[in-house]
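To fix ideas, we close by showing one paired sequence and structure record:
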Amino acid sequence: MIMNSVIEGKASGSNSKSEDPGTVTVRILLVDDFEPCRTLVSLILQDQPGYHIVGEAADGAEAVQTADELNPDLVVLDMGLPGLDGIEVARQIRSCSPGSTILFLTGNHDPEPARQALYAGARGYVHKFDVVAELAAAAKAVLSGQRFVSRRFRSLGVNRNS
C-alpha cells in the first residue's frame, strides 16, 4: 500500500524533509505479512519524533517494488515473508534503493538467520518478542550508522559485528 501523499511528495522533489525545513523526517517502509504486527510497529515508530511511515508491504515482491518506488530511509523487514525470503528481499532492496537502511524483525529463535541478515547488509535484527522494548532504540541506532542486535540474540552469540 503506497500512500498518495508520499507519491505526490516524491514527484514534487521531497527529500526526507518535513514542513519545517530544520526538521528531518525519517521515511519508513514496513514489511510484514501479518497486518497486526505492521500496526504495532507503526504505532511504536510513529511515536518517535521525525518518523513517518510512508508505505507498507505484505510480501517480498511487493516490498522490493515499494522500496524501489519510495526509496525509504528505513525498511523494517520481517524475516519470514511469503514469496521471497527476507534475506533475498534485503539484497534486492539494497540494489534498487541503496540508501535504505534495513532493520529485520523476526519471530525465529535461531541465531543463524540473524548472522545471515547482518552479513547480507542489514544494520539491525530485532526479535518480535522484544519489539516493544527495543524497536525505537534499534531504529535510532541503525539510522545513526550503528548495528543493533536484540539482547535475545546477543545472548546466543550474535553480535553487532556478525
Remarks:
- The two ends are 33 Å apart (CA to CA).
